[in-house]
Amino acid sequence: MSTTTPLLDVSGLTKHFPIKGGFPIRRTVGAVQAVDGLDFQVGEGESLGLVGESGCGKSTTGRLVTRLLEPTAGRISYRGQDITHASRTQLAPVRSEIQMIFQDPYASLNPRQTVGKIISGPMEINGINPTGGREARVRELLEIVGLNPEHYNRFPHEFSGGQRQRIGVARALALEPKLIVADEPVSALDVSIQAQVVNLLQKVQRELGIAFLFIAHDLAIVRHFSQRVAVMYLGKIVEIADRDELYGNPRHPYTRALLSAVPEATVDDVPRERIRLVGDVPSPINPPTGCRFRTRCWKATEKCATEAPPLVQAEGNKPGHLTACHYPETHEATVPAGRLAKDPGAAA
Ligand SMILES: Nc1ncnc2c1ncn2[C@@H]1O[C@H](COP(=O)(O)OP(=O)(O)OP(=O)(O)O)[C@@H](O)[C@H]1O
Ligand code: SF4
Ligand SMILES: [Mg+2]
Question: Which residues belong to any copy of the ABC transporter domain (predicted)?
Fold first, then answer.
């Protein structure tokens, strides 16, 4: 990453959803610690992948960054400007520069609006009148995302899932954003068309220089898309690094386990056997003390139960490669046999 001000700079970002209980007076009885003290940056035109199991706080992070949710604590700075608690009016100029693409291309498009209306909507709301008019701009955008500009007057139901997601991309592009938060943009699509939509996003990133926070479940999808990758577990970033560094030299046991499930990643460096993660992700209402991963980690010690490991450049890590573990993994480290499942794709 460059040393200039990053496009997006997030520090200590926290979201706790209060849990209300009690009768007759409802009071806060606890909190879902959905996101707990995230630090990360996204450079201009860069793509940061955010990966982790269901419920680890990825969408909450995306919604905090786009300010659809109010943070409980921490700081979000966009182009050097603190937008953590900016009001609607203060946010207006920034809002158009930060756009979101959602997971479900069915639910995120208004079924009663034509494609033209959907894509020009953000321009209307923000009073943007492109030269040549909004309709011409919409047709141009349809072309950019690989749709027929003649389909301007069609409705969402007339398109396939992949095409609908392209409409979502066109809508996000309408305001010429600098940052797009893409929340699992392809996971609701057929596997056969996922790659096409990822390719489109890649084209958008490269040709238009738009930065991405690309949220995904697994490491396979972000591998081709993101120059840097952050791995989340139960509301925290447990590892963050340049792509090649993360895939080639995973230091956190959780990253290693996730990687072992990616077939194409099980080359020289990573063991061929799949590491089985035993048990479920604990509840974010009552996360484990110390290291949150310890209830599923094969290396957990007493220290892991009492001290939360900080996210730091572990010994042997390249600069920018940060790991939150008291006992970072090495290439030579073995995993107990009981935690290994034979990879069906591996040679016997
Ligand atoms: N509005 C809310 N009120 C209370 N809890 C919430 C709210 N939104 C999310 N949560 C909880 O916060 C945690 C993180 O949720 P989030 O949706 O961010 O996870 P995720 O990583 O996006 O998961 P998935 O991969 O399933 O999309 C979960 O335990 C979820 O139940
Ligand atoms: S800190 Fe301990 S429990 Fe957490 S990942 Fe590292 S070894 Fe496992
Ligand atoms: Mg989500």
Answer: 8-259
Q: Which amino acid is at 269?
A: D
Within 6 A (CB) of ligand 2 lie: 253, 291, 293-294, 297, 299-300, 304, 309, 325-327
Residues 55/217, Cβ–Cβ less than 8 Å: no
Distance separating the N- and C-terminal Cα atoms of the chain: 42
Q: How far, in Å, from the CA of 31 to the mean position of ligand 1?
A: 12
Closest ligand by atom to 277 CA: 2
Note the ligand closest to the C-alpha atom of 61. Answer: 1
Closest ligand 2 atom to Cα of 292: 4
| Dihedral class, residue 251 (left if φ above 0, else alpha if ψ from -120 to 50, else beta) | alpha
Beta strands in the chain (DSSP E): 8-21, 27-42, 47-51, 73-78, 81-82, 98-101, 179-183, 211-216, 228-233, 236-242, 274-275, 322-323, 340-341
SS3 state of residue 9:
strand
Angle at CA 232, nearest 5°, toward 231 and 234? 155
How many CB atoms are closer than 10 A to CB 249?
Answer: 21
Q: What are the 10-residue block averages of pLDDT along the chain, 348 residues in total?
A: 80 96 85 97 96 95 96 96 91 88 86 95 89 94 94 94 93 94 92 90 93 93 92 98 94 93 60 76 94 95 97 94 96 81 48
**Atom 1 of ligand 1: nearest residue by CA position:** 17
In the sheet with 47-51, reading across from the earlier edge strand, the strands are 98-101, 179-183, 211-216, 47-51, 228-233, 236-242, 322-323
CA–CA separation, 98 and 44 (whole Å): 12
State if pTM tops 0.70: yes
Give the residue, by CA position, lying nearest to ligand 2 atom 6: 325
Q: How far is the CA of 333 from the centre of ligand 2 (A)?
A: 14
Report the distance separating Cα 257 and Cα 333, nearest Å. Answer: 13
